[in-house]
Amino acid sequence: MAVATLSSARALRRPRRADPRAIVGIVLTLAALAGSVAFWVSTTDARPVLIATHDLPAGATLSGADLGIAYVRVDDAVYRAALPADNLQSLVGRQLGEPIHAQQVLARAQLADQLGLGSDQVAITIPARPDSAVDGRLRPSDSVQILVTVTDKTRGTAHTSQVLERAQVFEVGRETSLTGSTSSTTDAAASNRGAITSVTLAVTADQARQLAEARRTGDLDIVLLPPPDTSHQ
Length: 233
Hints:
- The chain is α+β, with helices and mostly antiparallel strands.
- The protein has helices at about 10, 20-45, 75-80, 90, 205-215; strands at about 45-50, 65-70, 120-125, 145-150, 155-175, 180-185, 195-205, 220-225.
- The strands form two sheets. Strands 3, 4, 5, 6, 7 and 8 form a six-stranded antiparallel β-sheet that branches.
- It starts with 7 loop residues before the first helix and ends in an 8-residue tail after the last strand.
């Protein structure tokens, strides 16, 4: 009968054990992989919308610094009410009709209505030139003041008075650079489309009559005003 003998090296060899560090590494790798999968699943249907970067009052004119982009998962109805991120550039220069808080999703309804007239308003167009209308730096929904200057050529004197203390711009007419004709525009890039030729204002019927009279008695100047201060309301 053969008898196997064990050498001292084989007799004292310890059984192999898994390296704890390797086990921890595997666990961490699996956890990271699971987290990546969960994040991918959670963000697959997230959509970019515009948010306010800080508190803004009603009437504030939006700038690029006022808006940010956030990815959210919302129902289709909520998303349709919000403003998608690709509207960022077109909103610069628009005014808020309602206040908004920091990190709040910007809704379409919170923008001031640039195209609608109130039940007690009418629209009236007055001529405008760059030197009488702040170099054409006007956009729909801007607040403006209208002045009229009457010149007495026989005496060589002129008198300026206020026609309207505050009115809202409804549309801005500009020259079309390619054809030389005039056109109305309501987009944020209007200032790059030619010299200003006219301004249409949303006013009351009485204010429209005042403007019509002033237009025929003197030269009109359009003064750009800051948005109404509603922070103390």
